[in-house]
Design a protein that fits this description.
Layout lengths: L4 E4 L4 H12 L4 E5 L10 E5 L16 E4 L14 H28 L3 E5 L2 H4 L6 H21 L4 E7 L8 H4 L2 H10 L8 H13 L7 E4 L10
Helix pairs in contact: 1-7, 2-4
The structure holds NADP nicotinamide-adenine-dinucleotide phosphate (NAP).
The site of NADP nicotinamide-adenine-dinucleotide phosphate (NAP) has 29 residues, from α1, β2 and α2.
Length: about 230
């Protein structure tokens, strides 16, 4: 990947792990987050911006990849979800990703780049209290396949659908020992995800030449296995 990779959401969590892996491999990263990052690297250009405020003219003319990592886990009983909850989740997970990709389209095509988006295991597995995020991420999965078809063969587009992964976003769900243990036990592989589990797959999707339109489950076995 000879041109920069745009990582939206590089300050923390999975986006940060992807950024660190890319930098370790010698790639250049343009990182965008709303708050300042507490790390630097000669090959990292960190910018402060919300995804919705990204502008084409601020991006390089050629990109080898785009990773869109912002997301939400707002779990509520269905009756407690207001239209504003659905709208906020849809905006952050789906529409802001669309905006970034529309800004990056020309540069991605110039660089024969690859896109990595994020869904969740809760799209393919029905889980209580996930209605809003599962709807928004379902849209991301549809976007992944549509855009992969529309931009082939120039640009590859894939998504990762993680299960619970230890990041600041998941803190509410993993915040105490009992919860963390119960979450680990629910997974056939008996642990929750580590950011590197997800980052390694993201790097593979950025670099592979013959995968497009896929939503890869990275989920400790939650996607396919039933062991009790
Ligand atoms: N962690 C999990 O258990 C889990 C499970 C399933 C799916 N996922 C998905 O995986 C992806 C990564 O999750 P994560 O756990 O790493 O999330 P995270 O810990 O909340 O990190 C999100 C990153 O995105 C940035 N960000 C958030 N909103 C933004 C915006 N509007 N514009 C620009 N940057 C923004 C944040 O930095 P700033 O706050 O500085 O902007 C941060 O760097 C998400 O799409 C999430 O839905 C995560």
């Amino acid at each position: 990947m000879q041109h920069p990779i745009l990582v939206v959401g590089h300050r923390q969590g999975i986006g940060r792990a992807i950024t660190e892996h890319l930098l370790q491999q010698g790639h250049s990263v343009l990182g965008i987050s709303r708050q300042a990052v507490d790390f630097s690297h000669p090959n990292l250009d960190s910018r402060l911006s919300a995804a919705a405020d990204v502008r084409t003219e601020d991006l390089p003319e050629v990109l080898s990849g785009v990773v869109y990592a912002p997301g939400s886990i707002n779990l509520k009983p269905f009756r407690g979800l207001k239209p504003a909850d659905f709208q906020a989740d849809f905006q952050q997970n789906a529409l802001d990703a669309v905006h970034v990709l529309q800004c990056a389209e020309k540069a991605l095509k110039a660089g024969h780049g690859a896109v990595v988006l994020f869904s969740t295991v809760a799209v393919s597995q029905g889980m209580p209290f996930h209605a809003s995020v599962a709807m928004a991420k379902g849209a991301v999965e549809g976007l992944t396949r549509s855009l992969a078809a529309e931009w082939a063969p120039n640009v590859r587009v894939n998504a990762i659908a993680p299960s619970l992964t230890d990041t600041p976003l998941a803190n509410k769900l993993l915040g105490n020992e009992a919860r963390a243990q119960a979450a680990a036990e629910r997974h056939p592989l008996k642990r929750v995800g580590h950011v590197d589990d997800i980052a390694e797959v993201a790097i593979m999707l950025l670099q592979s030449n013959w995968i497009s339109g896929e939503v890869l489950g990275v989920n400790g076995g939650m996607g396919r296995l039933r062991i009790s």
